[in-house]
Specification:
Rossmann fold, 25% strand, 252 residues, 7-stranded mixed beta sheet
């Protein structure tokens, strides 16, 4: 995707910011346990930069773990939602390819559902510049668990209209002097079918879709889900993929 088109797609979340804040899933405590384990340090007291912070889902959870978090968000609509929900968290408008911070500012840099919007040729050197010695870059994505039959069926219905998050990002770091560790955390949440549909509608490919086409597609999916879940509730299963990156030149 061309850089200007990619940027426009990333900023499409501003049009669904309220829905995003209400419908998107959180992250399980086991994810942050894994971040701490692979980083070799607790989040308590850590200076953390949350890039592409969106409405502040991960930002809030890391703050609750005791981290000192600064949120970085390019989109005006998403940033406004973050500011309203978490007014005490420092918020900076900016992009991951050009971090507006001095060298050695943070112990941890995180990207929750956001690394795929960057250009690694620029964002990796920027992260390494802004991290302190022995600091880590942490990337993660909630991805629908297609091992579950109804999720696989839904994925097949929506596949022509969607883009997937990367199954692995380790190869993106091959050109750089870094060490990479990975972990997968399976988890789920119990929600209504309507909340699940609302969550789907916040993804960028739906945000930029013609409204009539989007409504028809989501309604078709709603009808299919109603046959599986006549009581109107479901367990939404995820495989949360985590990648931890640290500089090879400072690794102990």
């Amino acid at each position: 995707m061309a850089s200007h088109a990619k940027q426009a797609r990333a900023l499409s979340f501003d049009t669904v910011a309220t829905q995003y804040a209400a419908a998107r899933p959180d992250y399980p405590p086991a994810l942050f346990d894994a971040v701490e384990e692979l980083a070799g340090r607790p989040l308590v007291g850590a200076d953390v930069l949350d890039c592409g912070a969106g409405t502040g889902i991960a930002t809030r959870l890391m703050r609750e773990r005791g981290a000192h978090v600064v949120a970085l968000e390019p989109g005006a609509g998403m940033a406004a939602k973050l500011r309203a929900a978490e007014p005490e968290i420092p918020l900076v408008r900016g992009e991951g390819d050009r971090l507006p911070f001095t060298a050695g500012s943070f112990d941890v840099i995180t990207y929750a559902q956001a690394w795929h919007w960057t250009d690694p040729a620029r964002s990796v050197p920027e992260a390494l510049r802004v991290l302190r010695p022995h600091g880590v870059l942490a990337l993660w994505w909630n991805q629908a668990d297609v091992r579950v039959p109804w999720v696989a069926a839904e994925d097949a219905r929506l596949a022509p209209f969607t883009r997937s998050y990367p199954a692995t990002v380790a190869e993106l770091f091959a050109p750089f002097p870094v060490h990479v560790s990975t972990r997968e955390i399976p988890w789920s949440r119990r929600i209504t079918v309507e909340d699940h549909i609302s969550n789907i509608g916040t993804h960028s490919h739906f945000a930029v879709m013609d409204p009539i086409e989007r409504a028809e597609l989501l309604d078709t999916n709603r009808t299919a889900l109603a046959r599986h879940f006549p009581d109107g509730e479901l367990d939404e299963p995820y495989r949360c993929g985590l990648t931890i990156v640290r500089s090879a030149t400072t690794q102990a």
